[in-house]
Each structure stands twice: as structure tokens, then as C-alpha cells.
Design goal:
The relative contact order is 0.12. With about 600 residues, the chain is an alpha/beta fold.
């Protein structure tokens, strides 16, 4: 009776959440057919030793667990004798980046599910993209994706690409609180704070966030119900992060051994640890193997990795929660499989296989704040793995996953049926009006109601860029971009006009013949670039003059640009998959450039 009441209460909560739009299609698309997984060896993630049992799933939730369960009428029955049943895995540190070719985004989801990852984070998206990305994910079968709002310091790691719409810059308590309030309006799932300028090498190569700023950031985030995970890789910065009350350190502490002070700070403030060991493997950091790494660099990486392994063991032994986070999406750290490697590396560091599994299930769910999963218990979400072997004794057996279920729906293995959207990226094109932007809105948005963004070369030596609306002599306003280029040969500054919210969905411009705009500027290098779905890019060189003139660029004048080593012929482009219009300027390294645009339209 108690279980029936609990199931009814869960059903009511689920219905209320669905009405509020809080559960994606993967959760809604659970098989209505009941599922009985019979005679499995269950590792339930609660800390209990594995035991034989059958598990009944109804409406995406675990309805019953017992050694002997009768299958309800019409239920699908899986004979799991000789197999292990585990909770779905969580990866708390990933980037869905262009390193995974954008046209293969559905394959990224598929790779996670094939590895048994049923809940995953994405640290890479600008806030404008959260809603359309969630909408796209709801149209396919995928693990549940939790989005991070990115915050860093000026010249800090994480602020070295994109603009403040992608990674908000803060360097005072007041700016940190204002920044949190701004990103909270987009409803992120948590905040990623880049607090440590030291990345992966042997020197502090970017600025770091001071403790007062981080403390205010964490306090404001918690006021908004948002957890804070940090990029922190130095022991002293780890102490600052713990004192500030961050919820998780999302990297290994690499520069030396952890000490009693840090352990006590993490214990006192409830700071968990996701060491991301997979990204630190010395021979895989640059994805090309040991032979391509200079001996002195390789020696430093090996020393860092030894520190990483030792610190995981010390923190785990001290009772600090260790969870799985891989930094997947970075070079040499593939989506999905890196989480399995991470589990093996945790065991190499000194955790037992059972402890490693808890890091990837129950502990990860608690730290991420999704405690409706991560264990196999009545009422929990039915994120489940059927595995051949006993990974709680031999961690490598986790690679023998046979079937994967997300909220009760089979998403991988024999019998799984996925929609066409899981095979190829298929986003319906939105209609686009002629006017893209006349720069008369004062809120930073285009006439299409998309948020204008800046783009410049990144790295430590960065172009400094200011883009603002200015009054035209003839009336109205224009967009002005002014920049001091970095000393790199590839330095540039660009203004991007997204054609859809977050540049996620494409737009259909086949009713038009080209792009018209007013232009003036002073730069030896200027061009218009059209970016299309799948990172396909086409461009036309422009001539900058100091007097205003109207320019027309027919689509037939665009040239294919090779993105990510793949030549794109214009003949393959149909015009129904546009995402952005980009105006960019370059020149001599270290020089100043400027341009202004107005009345950007399709014609």
C-alpha cells in the first residue's frame, strides 16, 4: 500500500512538472508498456552489495524490486539471468563542442547512451542556446542534458573565446552577483565558474578569480537555487574554492599533494570532486600520442597526472565525495567512452570498482542535484544498464553494456528503436523575413529578436573589441565595431547577427537572392560570412570605405570556406540552413580597425 501511494504521488508530481514544461521529451516518451527485467544481479548504487532480483518498470519509474515478480498483463519481459543491472551513469563535466562535428550532434547523444551515460552536463553553450537546445534534444532520444552558465574573469580561462554572452566576465563581488542574476534569467541548471587561470600545462597562463568575487558568486547562485562547479587545478585555488562554498571542483588539483587544510575545508563546505582524469592522460592530451610531445612537456604532464591520481585517493579516503566528470569534447577525450575510461582511472587511483561505480551513479546524482535517479530504488527514474559481467568486482566489465534505458525507454542495444533525428541532424528550418537588423532596438537584439554577439581571436594575446550602436548623420542608428587587434597573424574582430535564437535552428532564405546592407569602415581586410547548419561556412570579401555605401552580395558570389578540414562547395548549399551572418575585420597584427553596418536585409 505504501508503494502504491508513493507511485501515485510521483505520478502527480510528474504531471505537474510536465504542465510546467520541466521534463523533456525523453522523460515524457517513456514506453507506456510495463517492463520487467527478470533475474538480474542488481547493483543498486545504495552501497548494498549486489543481489539477485527482478525489477519492474512502469511509466518510466521503478515500480517494484523483488526476487519474484509477476509480469503485468502486456508487459515486456527481459530475461537478465547472468547479467548485471546497474543505475545509469552520469558525467558531470562535458563540452558538446565543435570538436565533435556539429552535423554529428545526434551521434554525440548516441555515443553517450551507448556508453551507459543517461544524464550528462554541457559546459559549452551560451545562455541564448539553452531553450532551443532543449527543444532539439526533446525531438530525439538522448540522455538528459544539464546546461551550465559560464562565468570567468577578464583575461581568464573560459573567457578566451566567445564574448560575454557566452562567458560572463566578473571580477568583483558586485559584478559577480549581477552576473549570476543575468544568467539565472535563462534558467541554467548550474553555473560553471572558471576560477583558476592555470589550465593543463606547467604555468599559470590566465588570470584567476579572487576569493571575494567567487564567494559572492556562490552565495548569489545558491540564492537562485543554482549549484556552482569550478575549473580549479591548483591546491591553493582549491582552498579558495572550498572556502567560497563551491559545490564541486571540476578538475584535478595538479600542482602538488592535497593537505589536511584543504580536506577539512572541502568537508566543512560540502565540496565534491570530479577529477576529470581522462583529460589528463599524458599521451592523450593533444590527441596525437607521446611521440609528438616534447620530453620536458611530457615529464610535466606525467608529474601532473601522478599528482592527480594521488589526490583522488587522498580525498576519497578522507570521505570527500568523488564523482565522474571527464571534460569530454576536449581533444583526445571522446564523448561517452571517456566516462568508462574515467571509471577505470578512478580504480587505478585507488578506489574499489564498487566505489568507482558509486562515483558514476549515486554520488554524481546527489552532487548534480538530481536525486530522482542514480540508484535502483522504488520510485526512482528508471535509468538502467544491463551489463555482461560484474563491474563492481572488475571495473572493465562496464564496457560490456548490452542495453540502456532512459526513464524506462530502451535507448541502446538489441530492441532499441530510435527516431530519424538520432541518425542525422534534422532541425526544421524557420521562415526568415527580409529585415535582419536595422539597429534601432536598444536592447542589444536584432530585428529578428536574436542577441547580437561579438567574436574575436582568443588565447592569452587577445583582440580587444567594442561593439556598440551609434547615431548616423542621416538619422537612425548603425552598429559600430572597433578593435585593437592582437599580435597574432590571424587576429580579427567580428559582429555576429544570429538568424535564430541561440543560432541553433536554421532559417530558410531560399525566397531571397542575397544580402544587402549599408557599410563603411577603415580596415584592410573585411568580409561577410554566412554560417550554415553543420558548421558550413561561405564568405564574400568586402571593400571598406570611410563613406557609407550600400552593398549587395548575391548568394552566388559566396565562396566555400573549409571548416574543420572539409571543403564545402557552394553548389551543395541550398540556402535553407542559415544560422548566422558574420561581419569580420582584420589587418596588421597590433593595429586598430573599425567598421559600421546598417540596414542588413535579405533581398
Amino acid at each position: 500500500m505504501h508503494n502504491n501511494k508513493r507511485r501515485r504521488r510521483l505520478a502527480l508530481i510528474t504531471a505537474l512538472l510536465l504542465g510546467a514544461g520541466q521534463i523533456g521529451m525523453v522523460a515524457m516518451a517513456t514506453d507506456s508498456q510495463a517492463l520487467l527485467i527478470r533475474d538480474a544481479m542488481v547493483f543498486d548504487g545504495t552501497g548494498r552489495a549486489a543481489y539477485p532480483a527482478s525489477v519492474l518498470v512502469q511509466d518510466g519509474r521503478i515500480a517494484a524490486i523483488d526476487e519474484k515478480l509477476a509480469a503485468p498483463r502486456g508487459a515486456r519481459v527481459i530475461n537478465a539471468r547472468g547479467q548485471a543491472l546497474l543505475p545509469g551513469l552520469l558525467d558531470l563535466h562535458t563540452h558538446w563542442t565543435p570538436n565533435a562535428v556539429p552535423s554529428e550532434l545526434p551521434q554525440v547523444a548516441n555515443r553517450y547512451m551507448a556508453a551507459g551515460i543517461t544524464t550528462v552536463t554541457d559546459y559549452h553553450q551560451p545562455p541564448e542556446a539553452y531553450a532551443p537546445r532543449r527543444q532539439w534534444l526533446a525531438s530525439i532520444v538522448a540522455p538528459e542534458v544539464k546546461f551550465a552558465a559560464r562565468m570567468s574573469t577578464p583575461l581568464g580561462h573560459g573567457a578566451d573565446w566567445g564574448d560575454e554572452n557566452t562567458t560572463r566576465w566578473v571580477n568583483s563581488p558586485e559584478s559577480a552577483r549581477a552576473g549570476v542574476r543575468a544568467v539565472a534569467a535563462y534558467r541554467p541548471d548550474f553555473i560553471k565558474a572558471f576560477t583558476d587561470g592555470w589550465r593543463y600545462s606547467n604555468a599559470a597562463d590566465n588570470s584567476s578569480m579572487d576569493e571575494e568575487t567567487l564567494t559572492a558568486l556562490v552565495d548569489e547562485a545558491h540564492r537562485h537555487g543554482l549549484k556552482v562547479f569550478t575549473h580549479t587545478v591548483m591546491v591553493k585555488r582549491g582552498k579558495s574554492a572550498a572556502r567560497a562554498g563551491v559545490d564541486m571542483i571540476a578538475h584535478s588539483l595538479l600542482d602538488g599533494p592535497v593537505d589536511a587544510e584543504l580536506i577539512e575545508l572541502m568537508r566543512t563546505h560540502g565540496t565534491a570532486y570530479a577529477p576529470s582524469l581522462a583529460v589528463y592522460l599524458p599521451e592523450r592530451v593533444d590527441g596525437s600520442g607521446r611521440t609528438s610531445v616534447k620530453p620536458e612537456v611530457l615529464h610535466q604532464r606525467e608529474r601532473n597526472f601522478a599528482n592527480a591520481l594521488a589526490n583522488v585517493k587522498a580525498l576519497h579516503a578522507a570521505g570527500i565525495p568523488v564523482v565522474v566528470g571527464t571534460d569530454a569534447g576536449m581533444t583526445g577525450t571522446p564523448h561517452g567512452s571517456s566516462a568508462l575510461r574515467e571509471l577505470e582511472l578512478l580504480v587505478e587511483a585507488g578506489l574499489t570498482p564498487a566505489d568507482a561505480l558509486l562515483a558514476g551513479t549515486a554520488h554524481g546524482a546527489k552532487v548534480l542535484g538530481v536525486e530522482d535517479r542514480g540508484t535502483i530504488e522504488v520510485g526512482k527514474r528508471a535509468d538502467l544498464l544491463l551489463v555482461h559481467g560484474q563491474p563492481w568486482q572488475l571495473i572493465g566489465d562496464i564496457r560490456n553494456t548490452r542495453q540502456v534505458y532512459v526513464a524506462g525507454r530502451q535507448v541502446h542495444g538489441k530492441g532499441a528503436a530510435l527516431p530519424a533525428g538520432n541518425t542525422a541532424l534534422a532541425l526544421p528550418a524557420l521562415p526568415v523575413p527580409a529585415l535582419v537588423d536595422d539597429f534601432e532596438r536598444g536592447d542589444g537584439r536584432t530585428a529578428l529578436d536574436t542577441l547580437r554577439i561579438d567574436e574575436a581571436d582568443g588565447g592569452n594575446d587577445r583582440t580587444v573589441q567594442v561593439t556598440e550602436m551609434v547615431a548616423r548623420e542621416s538619422g537612425g542608428h548603425a552598429l559600430s565595431t572597433q578593435a585593437k587587434l592582437s599580435t597574432k597573424d590571424s587576429a580579427f574582430a567580428a559582429a555576429i547577427l544570429p538568424l535564430s535564437r541561440g543560432s541553433v535552428a536554421p532559417v530558410d532564405a531560399r525566397a531571397h537572392r542575397g544580402i544587402r546592407f549599408d557599410l563603411r569602415g577603415a580596415t584592410p581586410y573585411l568580409r561577410l560570412e554566412v554560417r550554415a547548419l553543420g558548421n558550413r561556412r561561405f564568405y564574400a570579401p568586402l571593400e571598406a570605405q570611410t563613406q557609407w555605401r550600400t552593398v549587395e552580395v548575391p548568394f552566388t558570389a559566396l565562396q566555400g570556406q573549409p571548416p574543420y578540414r572539409a571543403k564545402v562547395p557552394l553548389a551543395e548549399w541550398k540556402g535553407d540552413d542559415l544560422q548566422q551572418l558574420v561581419f569580420s575585420a582584420g589587418g596588421e597584427p597590433g593595429s586598430k580597425v573599425w567598421f559600421e553596418i546598417d540596414n542588413v536585409t535579405f533581398y
